[in-house]
Write a structure and sequence with these properties.
It is a single chain. α4 runs antiparallel to α13. β5, α7 and β6 form a beta-alpha-beta unit. The chain has 479 residues and is an alpha/beta fold. The protein contains 16 helices and 17 strands. The strands form 4 sheets. A 7-stranded mixed beta sheet has the order 4-11-10-9-7-5-6, with helices on both faces. A 4-stranded mixed beta sheet has the order 1-2-3-16. The longest helix is centred in the last third of the chain and has 24 residues. It has 2 domains: 209 residues, Alpha-Beta Complex (Aspartate Aminotransferase, domain 1); 221 residues, 3-Layer(aba) Sandwich (Aspartate Aminotransferase, domain 2), CATH 3.40.640. It binds pyridoxal-5'-phosphate. The site of pyridoxal-5'-phosphate has 14 residues, from α6.
């Protein structure tokens, strides 16, 4: 029913997405009931804890990347490749905190560096530390487009500053992005054309969306048309792309599109901004730009560059553009773009980032991750065939897509105003939350939607086979 597809073959991916949408299967009702019962019987403490949390925390949860159905699981600790909840259940961790922990949990070199820094030096002082320069140089060493780099506190902040910087540098007004992509939740960039839900728009004045526009993935003519539309109305400052494609690449961008987009941006004196929050140091030491052989003007970072610690984000790129950023006394100068952040560039996060990046290089981690990902995903493709489960199965390095619903592909098959789209949306959504729930009950946690991040410390054949066995138990329950 599904084979492992080449991650850059958009035509094959689109075609298989159509098959998944047309023939989507669901878990048997009896299995769903059994899994719900499993949670009630085995996660009693989590249930009480997270219900209590809902009294003082809006909605009870603060992390939106993991499955929270039928209720959130409260985690006590991590043990290498496993998460352990407060009831003592163990789960294989294919969530990787949503991407940052590429080496895996409790990785000795990272833990030792953090502990040594806190116990022997400091975790925070609010002044400059040489770790900031070391991190900037290290990122620049691996990604030649990064001539200068500035730490920020999150990917959302870095995207927001990328927009501000693009406008200040070009003197133009509009931003174009790809529909359905994610560039954080700031007022302007949360805008996503048809895919912007009411909930995401709530609290944001309509005017905020006037200068952000979206085009479909891989459609260079749409990009050109959108640029032409705004040429005499303030002009386009930048084109933002999630470098590997929407939602960590579930709707992947082709290599040709990347090359063409670079050309179009140059022709129109606008900036090409790569959002490498997920892909930076995950697709390889050179990120997605290393894979595509392209050179963005600005790159947005998050996740891995903070080594799994808080306040992980930053922006880097051309020196002439980056020089517009300033802090301290020079921030008062008129032509500067103002940024701040009390905890940005804190020594602990910078050191953790440096340690992880060095470890990735020293241990040749990406080669091992790629090999393990291929083994695992071939196994998944075989299982979907064996149990006749329609699925889209492909991977970008250690970003694994096992998509049994086609949710993100729906706008490429239906008009978003068509009632059938709403029906499909609901059906696909139910598929993915039940699938994630079933995997958790069987002992493995993934990121919402079906994508998973493979951590380095789960790449042994033994671990991968254990994970495949979890998927097999769940695929058996589809009908
Ligand atoms: C592509 C992309 N951009 C931006 C962000 C926002 O980053 P953060 O959650 O650090 O604000 C994310 C988060 O997952 C992301 O995947």
């Amino acid at each position: 029913m599904s084979k492992l597809i080449n991650e850059y073959d958009y035509a094959a991916i689109h075609a298989q997405a159509g098959e998944v949408i047309k023939n989507r299967k669901h878990l048997k009702r009896s299995a769903v009931e059994r899994y719900m019962k499993w949670f009630d019987e085995n996660c009693a403490k989590s249930k009480v804890e997270t219900a209590l949390a809902a009294e003082t925390i809006p909605g009870g949860i603060q992390h939106n990347l993991a499955n929270n159905h039928p209720f959130p699981i409260a985690i006590d600790r991590t043990e290498g490749p496993y998460l352990v909840d407060i009831d003592g259940n163990r789960y294989i961790d294919f969530l990787c905190a949503g991407g940052p922990t590429i080496l895996g949990n409790n990785y000795p070199a990272v833990t030792e560096a953090i502990v040594k820094q806190v116990t022997e030096k400091t975790h925070l002082h609010g002044l400059y530390s040489p770790y900031e320069r070391q991190l900037s140089e290290l990122i620049g060493k691996h990604m030649p487009s990064i001539e200068m780099f500035r730490c920020l506190a999150s990917g959302t902040e870095a995207d927001l500053i990328a927009a501000r910087l693009s406008r200040a540098f070009t003197g133009k007004k509009h931003i174009i992005r790809i529909a359905g992509g994610y560039h954080g939740w700031s007022d302007q960039l949360v805008y996503n054309d048809g895919a912007t839900t009411e909930m995401m728009k709530n609290g944001i004045p309509k005017d905020c969306f006037q200068n952000t526009h979206a085009i479909p993935a891989n459609d260079i003519e749409a990009l050109k048309a959108e640029i032409a539309k705004w040429e005499d109305k303030g002009g386009v400052a930048a084109f933002f792309v999630e470098a590997v494609g929407q939602d960590s690449g579930i709707v992947p961008l082709t290599k040709e599109f990347h090359k063409e987009a670079r050309k179009v941006c140059d022709e129109h004196d606008m900036l090409l901004v790569y959002d490498e929050v997920v892909t930076g140091f995950r697709l390889g030491m050179g990120g997605a730009q290393g894979v595509f052989g392209t050179k963005p003007d600005l790159t947005v970072f998050g996740k891995i560059i903070g080594g799994g610690l808080g306040c992980s984000g930053g922006i880097g790129g051309r020196k002439d553009i980056m020089s517009l950023l300033a802090a301290g006394v020079s921030a008062e100068s008129e032509n500067k773009v103002k940024v701040g952040g009390t905890l940005s560039a804190n020594p602990l996060t910078c050191l953790a980032g440096i340690t992880v990046i060095n470890e990735l290089e020293k241990e040749n981690v990406h080669e091992k991750l790629d090999e393990a990902s291929k083994y695992f995903m071939n196994g998944i493709a075989e299982l979907t065939e064996k149990y006749d489960v329609p699925a889209l199965v492909f991977h970008h390095q250690s970003i694994l897509h096992i998509d049994t619903h086609g949710l993100m592909h729906l706008p490429y098959f239906f008009d978003t105003k068509d009632p059938e789209y709403e029906k499909q949306l609901y059906d696909a959504y139910m598929n993915y939350i039940e699938f994630s729930m079933a995997l958790a009950a069987e002992g493995l946690i993934i990121a919402n939607g079906g994508k998973t991040y493979l951590p380095y410390n789960a790449t042994s054949k033994e671990m991968l086979d254990e994970a495949l066995a979890v998927y097999e138990r769940v695929f058996k329950e589809f009908e």
